[in-house]
User: What shape does this take?
Amino acid sequence: MSTGTGTPYRSSLRTGRDGFIHLLRAEWTKFRTVRGWVLALGAAVLVTVLLGVLLAAGSHTSCSKGPVEAPCPPLPTGPGGEAVEDKFYFVYRPLTGDGSITVRVTSMTGRIRLPDETPGVRNVVPGVVPWAKAGVIVKESGEQGSPYAAVMVTGEHGVRMQHNFTHDTAGRPGKVSGKSPRWLRLTRAGETLTGYESADGVNWAVVGTVRLARLPDTVRIGMFAASPGDLTVTRGGLGGLSAAVRFAEVTAVFDRVGLGGGVPGGAWNRQDVGVTTGFDGSPHHPGGFVESGGTFTVTGVGDVAPRADGSKIELPLTGTMTGLIVVIVVAVTSVTDEYRRGLIRTTLLASPRRGRALAAKAAVIGAVAFAAGLAAAGIVVPLGVRILRAGGNDVLPVAALTELRVIIGTAALFAATAVISLAFGALFRRGVAAVVTAVTVVVLPHILATTSVVPEGLSQWLLRVTPAAGFAVQQSIPEYPQVIGHYAPAAGYYPLAPWAGAAVLCGYAVLALGLAVLLLRRRDA
Amino acid sequence: MRRELHAEWTKLRTLSGTGRLLLALVVLTVSVSAVASAVVSCPRAGCGHDAAKLSLTGVHLGQVAAAMLAVLTVGGEYGSGMIRTTLAAMPRRTTVLAAKAAVLTGVTMAAGTVAVLGSVLAGRLVLPGSGFTLAHGYSPLSLADGPTLRAAAGSVLYLTLIALLGLGVATAVRNPAAAAGAILGLLYLLPVMAFTSSDPDWQRRLWQISPMNAGLAVQATTSLPDLPLSPWAGLGVLAAWAAAALLGGGLLLWSRDA
Assistant: This one.
């Protein structure tokens, strides 16, 4: 008979601390074993992709050539790869090697077509639009989109030096008139171009110096005039705003024209760069050029600037909001269901440090939502753009990094929204209240702002201060100060820069999660 | 049916969220309407605004409370397991749903009437200050005016139909959070789709089938020929949605276990 005391039972499992990795694994197991959540996230991806594809497939554009529809010509692109507007009246001479051009601009006048007051009667009034431009230019060739540098006077923005479409430097402000003419000079030395301006032709000030890489030896040098159309924004019938651009032209008078360097003698050449032709072959809204006794009068229509109108790569991401609502529901229920079923007590028993338990849950839900967003955007953006292009739509090209930012930003939008929703779920402990609150703060402001339900000023504020600011990461084409456009949320332009918007959203996510952790620690479960 | 009605009324009356949601319905509708009436201005004659519709803007937000009340009525029972008691006590399931619908209709209609009357009153008081004056072609809002009465009464019906749509969806989906997401998506996302679609035909079609756009056509009192649907036909579209949702929800309730 043995009287020795038996060894007490010891579990053969190793004792360990409740490491964060273990918590993550526990939360991941909880998530992946609820079939409804996994299916719902799959549905979020699917619905985002399908809506985007449907929208892209429903858009068709063709250009009419008289009675027949024809595919539109491709958009000209600038040296930076962006789509550009390159339409102006060009009066030029060839320049080989170094040289310069000097002119005096004595007058800038123009015509603007306003909305018809009597239907069918063209309502054309005299006037110059703010960014009408005329001045001197050095351009690689007559091809649309080829590199250039120019010094110009503008309708309301004073003297500017611009090059390669996206770059703009301000000179002296003020308008041009016979009493206060403006002298402009552009010199070329190899690849370096320097712009000067002067009020009297004696005292010159440098406006800017730019380098045009790989500029060939022989280029074109001369005078130009261009006037972008006049933009009007009107309220549409079914709600929303529609922007319309109407014809405007500018006429500039140059004199005291002086050429220096490698410019051969002879007559001036002229080219109406990028002029569109009617179906009878005649130019539509042509520019013009008259020379008499050393005075040059140049009339031009169009613009030399980056292009802002056209479909954007984020258009197929319209389904994001639908996907987000599904993500909100999944993230909210992932915590409120624990309260419903009483699982939260087990969770907190297993991991008494409540903040870490919630952090692990947030990490898992955030990561899963990020993956879903990445899958959805990674599929729908390239696919949608292909479908749009196949439908004859002009899709404004963007750099590969920008496209990547739009896709990863959308994934981040999914992740941050999931974390906010989870925090609301933990705060309210009631599914309905949490879902409604999350939709109201993340999705609703974006809907109100982009469908022009609320006035534009209010839209801008909604997209600055609410979590909906995060949608800014989806904007692929920036706002250009030198182009007048309809830069409203309804047109896809956000008041905050992409990463600033994302930062606002993430800030809210951190705040909500912090609040949820605080309350989870204090309250009983 | 009387016993079922009584039971459902007692349950709805004693739920803690009911009073708050009904209050939210009235407060959200009236305050948003008043703010819209104050913010939108009519600086000159022929500014093209629809004064009656403007004074009822708050219904856009108040409908969320109506829909959530519906979700609470049935989804809450699934959340707490109460549904099993309910169905044990009242085994005729479709009657239960009908009773729920009747009680919900009564409650929403009452709160909706208060909310809409409050909005119209706010509009009557605030709109003249925003330039909606006789000189600019706007007489003060009055329910004696046929189209305005139609807009107001239609808005009450709209809120009620939204609640019934919510009841149908919540009965079908059962999980209250998922039901809330589904209803909000249905209400707000279809208009966005209509807005972003570049094809005008598609825009009209989506507008016509969207419960919110079509249903709120009943608020329009000006430029009726430009609308894709006449006011009552628009409300009919919403009624069809509500009927379909209730039918689907009822069928699922009848055929599934609880």
